[in-house]
């Protein structure tokens, strides 16, 4: 069994604020109407960490987790598939298995370095 | 209760012992307790038991007192105190028992890391293996860069808090560490491995079992009980976005600033009036960051003040004389209450070897989630 | 002793190069000497192990009981090619690790016992043991298991151990292997220590192996101390 992370981001029709994950009211103007958008374009790495103390269910050390910002303003957290992460680096988003949760293989954002 | 690994005591044992001590310290005798609030984050997951406030009432034969468990992640203790305070302030209850407790060491390390991670955003954080240290690591990277905080500064927090903890019989960690041993020796990395880069082992608080309790009451009853008057002068609380990625500026701990402002406003006081503070140093970077966000130091000055010794017990603003979460320990639900207990002891002059000189105003910050729900409390000695 | 009779039961001895002592600076600033123990020191070592026999917590009792038997077996020449490394701070015994050589190229890791807690002593001594197997004894692979599942999972993840078929000598448990390759990958991260040990420090450690009292050892393991309980 597999599950894919929902990558739908929400752009407020009233004020244009972009949100990911979902909020039922706009973070900026409390609006209730949104356009569904997908993260677009390259992603820039805002920050990252390298995780060695693992939670139950993850067995490999050295996992790089980062927060990125896409060209269209969507921000997301995901795996960063490089041994030399640098704040500001450009990444391309892919969907890969990120974690097995209750026996279900979950696919989520995994970023690869790009030019 | 001293914080440590309590192999043979259950969560209820810890809560009961701490509660009875508070009740006895207050000299309640046969006076009834009207309301009980228990701060606890995850008894359902750690201990397979829920409704622990009801269970505590039963343990202590406090029926028919009202009772609720209050949950706010690592700020469960602070929120429990807030709710107890509201009950007294509203005239709903005259005598309130607020206890905080957590028993985490009954499960393995990876399991407890995962349970704590349950407070992360499930769809965009948890699935990636994000843990609290991971969030702290991502925050630390940006904060250290922005304000030129060095690994040395972080180590200073560790060393100060371990030194303070060694003076505190209730502290989990009783071990003095040296800058050489954790940072500067060419081989220090073997003692202090990376947990979530840039945070290392000695930047992170331990996993602890423990409980703490306070009795809240009206001024009139406090006078009747003939106890030194320590008043909750102000409480503030504020929230922020759940996922760290959605903070407009991830280095801006808005909920901390806002909660502190609100607490000071209610108390009619300012940061300058504070004589002793218990901040939430689950990670060393947070002590520095909170000291700035609460208004004790300008942004970017917290590390300088730490390095200058201003936050030592003998300094101009002692921070974490108890040893903080780092050395006193962090049984999650207990911490917020333990912070206030420490402040009460300090204000009464009962803090033994770690006593700050003659404090009148104390301040605590209890940091829930990763800064998305923060409770700040101002306590003041009266008369 | 009738050496002719002894010959029936004493296993042949493989000439093992000695372990060069090293010193590790711990988080408290204390210096721990890691050196190879001599057979003659076993009676003192046993005094350090004995208090653990009654401690159920963290599997100390079974580790202690098995380690006791292994050390005694080594002392009485009934275990083949066993070696033992000890950790000492100011002469005091703080940890013991032991193993034996199955063949010139294959080692069998036995036990790791830390008496002081909270300073990664177990981790340091385990790493030293692996250092000896691979670097000084020139072996290709070490088979490892453990009694404590949490402790073992740490090693599995830290070193990236490979599962093997067959049975480990310790109760027939599933063996996991540390190969030369895995060792050298992990070395920079996990194997601490400086050589040579300053002569006066080494002399203090080898001159007398001090073992704390049973009370003190139990206190260290159980973390009990003067507390307002």
Describe this structure in words.
- The complex is a heterotrimer of chains A (115), B (383) and C (229).
- Chain A contains no helices and nine strands.
- Chain A has strands at residues 2-4, 9-12, 18-19, 34-37, 43-51, 63-70, 75-80, 90-101, 104-113.
- In chain A, the strands form two sheets. Chain A has a five-stranded mixed beta barrel. A three-stranded antiparallel β-sheet of chain A has the order 3-2-4, with no helix packed on it.
- With 383 residues, chain B is an alpha/beta fold.
- Chain B has a four-stranded mixed β-sheet, with helices on both faces.
- In chain B, helix 7 packs across helix 12.
- Chain B is globular and about 60 Å long.
- Chain C has a single domain (17-221), classed as Aminopeptidase (3-Layer(aba) Sandwich), CATH 3.40.630.
- Chain C has helices spanning 3-9, 42-49, 60-75, 121-136, 149-159, 180-190, 199-207, 214-222; strands at 22-25, 31-36, 82-89, 92-101, 106-114, 141-144, 162-163, 176-179.
- In chain C, strands 1-2-3-4-5-6-8-7 form an eight-stranded mixed β-sheet, sandwiched between helices.
- Chain C is globular, with a radius of gyration of 17 Å.
- The mean pLDDT of chain C is 93.
- Chain A binds chain B through residues 5-6, 19-21, 27, 46-58, 63, 65-67, 75-79, 87, 98-99, 101, 106, 108-109, and chain B through 108-111, 113-114, 117, 121, 123-125, 127-131, 133-134, 137-139, 141-142, 145, 193-199, 241, 243-246, 250.
